[in-house]
Structure formats: C-alpha cells, structure tokens
Amino acid sequence: MSETEKQEEEQTNAGPTPAAGGRKFRKTRQGTVVSDRSDKTVVVRVDRRFAHPFYGKSVTRSKKYHAHDENNEFRVGDVVRIQETRPLSKLKRWRVFELINRPERV
Questions:
Q1: Which of 3, 23, 33, 78 has its CA at a distance of 20 to 30 angstroms from the CA of residue 40?
Q2: Per residue in 85-98, pLDDT tens?
Q3: Element of type H or E holding 94
Q4: Pairwise CA distance, residues 40 & 74, whole Å
Q5: Would you say 97 and 84 are in contact if contact means Cβ atoms under 8 Å apart?
Q6: Cα dihedral 85, 65, 78, 72 in deg (nearest 10)
C-alpha cells in the first residue's frame, strides 16, 4: 500500500466531519419537560424503546436530563430537543436546542 493510499484510508476512517466552527457533531435527544422550577434550568425526561435482549418484548426506559434554559421560556409538558454541551454546573451538561411541540393550556 502506498503512502497516499494510507493517508486516504485514514481520512475516510476519521469519523464525523466537523460542523461549522470546527466542532464535531453533538448528541441530541428529544423529550418532555417535567420540571421548570429552577432558574434557567429545566428537567427533561427522555424515553427510549428497545426490544428485550432475551424475551424480545418491547421495553420502555426513561432518563432525566438537566438542561439549560437561558430565558426561562419552556414550561412543563413542552416537547423539546436538547443538545449536549460543555459542563455548565454540577448536573447540567445539556441545553435546550429547540421547541418541538407546546400543548394547549386550559
């Protein structure tokens, strides 16, 4: 294998290409806001479904993430997308990226 072929192979196996600004792609999750009591923080519950490894039955698991909400604009029940970011506090490693659905308030 020549030197140029080795370089081309390394470039193709390098992983995700950097997005604008030289950053790699960040993880995103979609979930429901379950708490908005803290200042500039919301708690988002993210559900995931998968087949049980032995029984094959569909299983639902959930996890709560503390996410940064700079303007305190999100309320309980909102469906939002969160994005991974640098550590902002002891628990916050995510920020609210966008609002997907806001339920009707009665």
A1: 23
A2: 999 999 999 999 99
A3: strand 94-101
A4: 10
A5: no
A6: -60
Query: What per-residue string of b and e applies to 74-102 under the rule 16 or more CB within 10 Å gives b?
Result: beeebebebbeeeeeeeebbbbbbeeeee
CA–CA gap between residue 65 and residue 69 (Å, rounded): 12
Question: How far, CA to CA in Å, does 39 sit from each of 8, 20, 97?
Answer: 49, 30, 17
**Sign of the four-CA dihedral 8, 14, 19, 21:** negative
Q: Kindly report whether the global pTM for this prediction surpasses the value 0.85.
A: no
Which single residue is written with the structure tokens 């998968």? 50
Would you state the structure tokens that stand for residue 48, as one six-digit string?
């995931």
Average pLDDT of the segment spanning 42-57: 97
